[in-house]
Structure formats: structure tokens, C-alpha cells
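Support reply, case 0932

Customer input (verbatim):
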Amino acid sequence: MTREDTQTPISSLPYRLEKLGNTLFLAVSDEHRFGSDAFLLADFAGQSLRHKDYAVDLGTGCGIIAFLLYKNQRPTKMWGIDIQPQAIDQFRFSVDYSIQQGEDISDILQAECCDLKNIKSCLPAGKFDLVTCNPPYKTGGTGILSADPAHQIARHELLCSIDDVCAAAAWLLKSGGRLCLCQRPERLCDTLGAMRAHHIEPKRLRFVAKNENTNPWLFLVEGKKDAKSYMDVLPTLIFDQQTAARLTHYGDYE
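Our regenerated output:
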């Protein structure tokens, strides 16, 4: 019996599949999916990620950031952490399905269902070189809540705040380890303040705009644990069609 004989037909799978490479697949659902900000953050965080590194993606959702970092940088170990069991089931399905297609990722990509506010019960302190997070953009009690609970958690600080994210990152990171986040520009002061409060010094900042004549709609920031004060503000990234094509083209997925 060949591997093809044991594969499950795509039409009968519980999720939609995005093909990130020849044998690398990501399951997406209406509850747990991704947008362009995930590609931007993965590209930003991956620029100095090394093969020997250990990394964690907090609030991983479907796992897109973890999968992109695996695809392009191949860290030694990459964890995805989420409080929602359905998200973790979806992440693990992607790993299992990709293995079935011939992608050997079982020893690299791991998923854990965990409240990042209780990260001490899930992962060890001071072991990790990189923590990433695409956090909720809106504070609790602001904006219009989606009818979908998963979307509420992803968009609003209902179960965790930016301070909680930075506290978890501070626990996980080695001295000199990096935290990479994306967030809306109106949350810049909140984000930088939370990083510094947990001894993660902002070191690299980049705004993202749709064109040269519009205000930024996103920023990317990298902080380093226990580092000295100095931040490099990079040129604004114009997220036009050319940039979008470069960032969102992985294997056969575009």
C-alpha cells in the first residue's frame, strides 16, 4: 500500500486547507483563520531567527505564524500556544495532515492548549530565543463585538491584555531573547510601555501603510529581554501588491 492509498480525500476533511509548500498544509476554519498581518509578522520575526533557536507563538490560532516560521527558517523547535481547544485541535490537524503528505514536522511543530496568563504551568522559564504574538487589537469594552466567541477573543482583550502577553514573553525568553509583535498604531504607547515594564526593551520598530499618502494601519515591533535602551525606527513598509505577493507566496500558496 502506498502513502497515496492512505490519504483522506480533501472533500471529506473537517477544515479548508491552504497549501504552504509541496507537502506543508494549514487547516483554516471560519473561527480560526489568518490575514495579511500574520505574514507581515512572520517575515519581520523571521529575519534573525536561526536554525538552532527555540520559538513560541502566543495566541497561535490556526498556527499560521508558527507554520510560516517553520517553512522559512526551520527553528529547532516551534510551539504554538492558545487558550482555545478548537484552535489547538486545528493546529494539530495541520501537523498530522502534513505528515501524512510527507512533511516531517512532528519533532519541530508542537501545540499546547494553555492560558498565556498561566504560562508557567505550560513551558519552562528562560529557554526560548523568540516569542511572537499577533495579539487582540482592541481593549476590552471597546468596538463592536462579533457574534462569534472565537472572533471576540481574537480581536478584543477579553482573555488577555498586552501586559499579559509581555509578562508571558518575559517568563519564556532567555536574556537577549526577542519578542516580536504587531499591533494597531493607536496602541503603540500601550505596547512599548508593557514591554519595558517586563524588561523587554523595544529595539526595532516598523510601521506599515497601504501607500505613501495614507497613515500606517499597523506597526511591527521587536524587543529584546534585558537589553540596553536604543530603538531603530525602520522606514515605513508600503504594503502594496508587490509586497503582498512577496510575503504571501509560499510554495504553491498565494
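We compared this against your earlier run and they match. Two observations from our side: The chain has one domain: 35-91+108-247. The two ends are 33 Å apart (CA to CA). Please reopen the case if you see a mismatch on your end.
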